[in-house]
Amino acid sequence: MTTSRIEAGSSIASAQRDSALEGLETRILLMHALGLTRVQLITQSERCLTAEEAQRFTALVQRRMAGEPIAYITGQREFFGLPFSVTNDVLIPRPETELLVELALERAPHGARVLDLGTGSGAIAIAIAHSRPDLQLTALDSSAAALAIAQQNAIRNLPPQAVRFLHSDWYSALMAGAQFDLIISNPPYIVAGDSHLRQGDLRFEPIGALTDHADGLSALRTIVKGAAAHLVAGGWLLLEHGYDQSAAVRELLIAEGYRQVQSWRDLAGIERASGGVRLA
Ligand code: GLN
Asked: Cα of 71 to ligand 1 centre, how many Å?
């Protein structure tokens, strides 16, 4: 019988055996509750849990069983090989978003000014800045709470002042003449009322980071239209979007006169990002 309540005096091994969660999640939550590394969990497997440890672990298991994402329970998620702090003020960084980072790294000229719109936890901007110290990153978000997390993540992963953060609703707080050589964004793109918003991890994530409360394309439209004022001629605009939005996003880019408009597949084979080059 598995259980969500682990009693004091249980060994680490028996807590793992009896947990109602699957193995990996159990190990992650045990490491978190006991402050142990993966290796310590193995070498100390016969050690018995104190009452406090058992209680702490049980509380985490119960949160997970109520559906809360592991990343919010531990406050951590890895992205592009870097550790990020996350709370429910920010979207949990997704592995498929690493595609956008790779596309930007391949296309940003040396010393380029890069703008990340709707940075959330800062994952995209910080991953780019970490790989390419030559670039000048600006990352903005309309959520002050998200920016506070992004700033913590920059401190954690980068030298001081490596990314400039700005509180802004898309382009609105940028100076009129501010120019960038590359613009990137993973905006909210889920259609209002989509059933996925009521399932799994998404139920716990900030709704404004997931959906535009409209047809799923309104933030993407705002970003594509506004880019004309801030993207240099010859600069790339790179966007993440939903699994069924690639044709619509290519159309938006073509309508605005972008060249080399194309989409790229994520590791699951889904067209997950699209982009183009701004015409002179
Ligand atoms: N990729 C996320 C999901 O479908 C959505 C993130 C977003 O809207 N930018 O779960």
From this structure: 15
Look at residues 184, 173, 116, 181 and name the one whose alpha carbon lies nearest to residue 150. Answer: 116
**Residue-wise DSSP of 70-99:** HHHHHTEEEETTEEEE--TTSPPPPGGGHH
Residue nearest to atom 5 of ligand 1 (CA): 210
Mean of pLDDT values over 179-207: 98
Place of tokens 């998200």: 146
Mutate to test the pocket of ligand 1, among 119, 210, 220 (most ligand atoms within 8 A of CB): 210
Out of 3.40.50.150, 3.40.190.10, 3.40.50.300, 3.40.50.720, which CATH number does the structure's domain 89-277 have? 3.40.50.150
| 136-169 residue pLDDT tens | 999 999 999 999 999 999 999 999 999 999 999 9
Q: Which atom of ligand 1 is nearest to the CA of 243?
A: 4
Q: Whose CA is nearest to atom 3 of ligand 1?
A: 210
167 Cα: distance to centroid of ligand 1 (angstroms): 21
Question: Tell me: the pLDDT tens digits for 172-186?
Answer: 999 999 999 999 999
- For the chain, give every domain's residue range: 12-66, 89-277
Q: Is the pTM of this model over 0.70?
A: yes
Pairing label, strands 136-141, 163-167: parallel
Angstrom distance (rounded) from CA 31 to CA 38 = 7
Average pLDDT over residues 43-58: 96
Helices in the chain by DSSP H: which ranges?
Answer: 12-18, 23-34, 38-43, 51-65, 70-74, 98-107, 123-131, 144-157, 207-210, 218-227, 246-255
Helix (H/G/I), strand (E/B), else coil: 116: strand
Distance from the Cα of residue 31 to its chain's centroid: 23
What pLDDT, on the 0 to 100 scale, is given for residue 205? 98
User: Where does the pLDDT of residue 5 fall: very low under 50, low under 70, confident under 90, or very high at 90 and above?
Assistant: confident
